[in-house]
């Protein structure tokens, strides 16, 4: 994951990675996932992925929540959208001591959704050292055409 690259540079810290054993579907497994997160809470607990709701059972001042996007808000309306907004965005942001996003766009989206969001910081995803850009073989020609709407001329 992207956080493997971060952990490589956390020398001097005892970092434990815990992946929820619960599926992210239904009410009961999500409640068990939140309880599981509480049982594994450390001096700092970093919540990533689509399980923001687990922050509700964690200590606020030691919880860091990273939000990659909130596009799911655009896919869900009505009661389902309201549940997602409250349990995946509003309450988790309010219950986290620090919220990070991976882009300025996501930060803006979060601030638009969450009144009194507090400090939301942008921390871009790192690129691992093993990544090296490789040019594509062959040559490519891109053709761009511009189309304009024209009104008929009067002769």
Could you write a compact summary of the structure shown?
By secondary structure, the chain is α/β, with parallel strands linked by helices. It is built from 5 helices and 4 strands.
Q: Which characteristics define this entry?
A:
155 residues, single chain, 5 helices, 32% helix, four-stranded parallel sheet, 4 strands, alpha/beta
Characterization of this structure:
By secondary structure, the chain is of the alpha/beta class. Helix content is 32%, strand content 10%. The chain is built from five helices and four strands, in the order ααββααβαβ. The chain has helices spanning 2-7, 27-39, 72-75, 78-94, 104-113, and strands at residues 45-47, 63-67, 98-101, 120-122. Strands 1-2-3-4 form a four-stranded parallel sheet, covered by helices on one side. The protein is globular. The N and C termini lie far apart (66 Å). Mean pLDDT is 84; it is low at 143-151.
User: How are the strands of the largest sheet arranged?
Assistant: 1-2-3-4
Largest sheet: 4 strands, parallel
SSE topology string: HHEEHHEHE
Number of helices: 5
Oligomer, anyone?
A: single chain
Q: What is the mean predicted local confidence, pLDDT?
A: 84
